[in-house]
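Two proteins, back to back. First:
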Amino acid sequence: MASVVSTEPKTRVTAAPQPKSELGTEVLAPTRREFLYYIWGASMAMLLGGSGAAIVWFALPRFKEGTFGGVFNLTAARVPQPNGAPTSIPEGRFWVSHTANNELVVLYGVCTHLGCLPKWSLSNHRFECPCHGSKFELDGLYIEGPAPRSLDRFETTITFTDGSTAASNGTGDPIPLEGRTVLNVAINTGKRIKRNGKV
């Protein structure tokens, strides 16, 4: 059997010329696979970015005024008398105490030992923890018991009827009223001041 040999000249197939950039280098169009990788990468970046933003939005605390973690505004009617029984604000988890020295202090209503809730004892004129017997003075100072330190305090700002204000310092010391009449007491339960030691 005789083989047939084609005598036609072979033509060479060449790709269309690639466009050139302004610098004279060839600009290569992405392949289909590269294009799909880019789309996939952009989709993942958007998904992770959206998920991250949602997690941050959900995780950040948002406290309304009058709820624990937010600011409580008390009128003068809720401020106790000097050296009298402190006022309990259960929704804020704090006590407002008016000391014999005419000073105001806001105490976190949780024992510094194991987190029980100390109660005010009218007969003994002090806070007493029902769980393990820790005792604290009217201004929250440690008296005795297994508690490692005095009661913690909250950042407080007092507005007086004359328009002046007074705020608690960095250690949460009682705020002297100095004969002024209280108009409003703002307690920031998101800013707890931990007491160092038993004073």
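And the second protein:
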Amino acid sequence: MHCIGMARLILFNKPYGVLSQFTDRERGRPTLADYIDVPEIRVAGRRDFDSEGLLLLTDDGQLQARIADPRHKMAKVYRAQVEGVPDQEALARLRGGLVLNDGPTRPAGARLIDEPRGLWPRDPPIRFRARIPTQWLELTLKEGRNRQVRRMTAAVGHPTLRLIRHAIGEWTLDGLEPGQWRELSAAAGGPDRPRRRFPAPRKL
């Protein structure tokens, strides 16, 4: 594991429907502040409102840049539940690179996987169509465009229904339930115990 010196690094399993920021003054949606109360911590990379999974936060600007800047080509592993079952041609297109509206993607890892072990229920659940099966994919990217996984799977005819980021570089979701976070020990680079701050009920 890379040495992070005295930097604070937090691994957070972002639930569906939570913004990857600490305030939402306009609409009052759930934010990171509902789960994490650590001063001077900033998001390193983002997760979409409708996506789940690993989010890294740090108080170190250099570490934040190394994680978030695509020039560093830090691998990010995603698990996507898609409509239909991609065939070998679709997987080959994902691996070889696709031309999206903002240009060609870099080559990526893409493989079919079983439903992830220990998968938690999503609230709200995904939409199911009785006549259309679903399949889980594992995608490994070294770039981070806006909604890239969703656009890639849609481009090969398999829209994403559920998206979970499992890993960023050497850091993974392992041992974290939705809404839980873990701070790595600055001295040893090892993990502290998972923590959870339960959000207060919101007024409707």
